[in-house]
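Notes from hallway chat w/ T.B., transcribed later so I don't forget. T.B. wanted the structure written out for a chain they're using in a teaching module, and asked if we could keep both sequence and structure tokens in one place. Agreed to drop them here.
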Amino acid sequence: MPFMHDHMHSLRRILRYIQDTSHYGLHLYPSSITSLISYTDADWGGCPDTRRSTSGYCVFLGENLLSWSSKRQATLSRSSAEAEYCGVANVVSESCWLRNLLLELHCPIHKATVVYCDNVSAIYLSGNPVQHQRTKHIEMDIHFVHKKARGQVRVLHVPSRYQIADIFTKGLPLILFQDFRDSLSVRQPPTSTGGCDRT
């Protein structure tokens, strides 16, 4: 019975949030297209039923949110570094696809895409593809990211306090959630400054 009560409480909170924010939307602003910047995060074994991790990422073109994802990883991760590295591989793949799309639209990105990750081990693996028993099962991801890191992508550390992708992978304190939501440009529409309609 407590299990059902917890789910009903969570469902009520979700419905109340949707009701209170149904008028929110993604805002886009004029911006010079100079760079792609992405954030990626994963919660290690966060699903209580399957112990699979959830990966999340967001990609910005200039100051505008262009792409985002939050989904359960297909396989079990043996460590937090592995879960985070799978997330890095996902956002690197998405970033490469976006770079090719922008190239076809005659808006090439000349700078390397910056990928922000808060896991030091995953960052180390992206630049140093050392193979050993603990990384053998993610070998393809390691080679893929390392190959792209030779010019198209740079994987850098971001402190957890500024890890915007956390909003896609875990529950957050209200203030941090609102701060990250604003960083994604998801907000209320601007208030109208026009006069009354006199028809």
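Follow-up for T.B.: The chain is about 35% helix and 20% strand. Might be a good example for the class.
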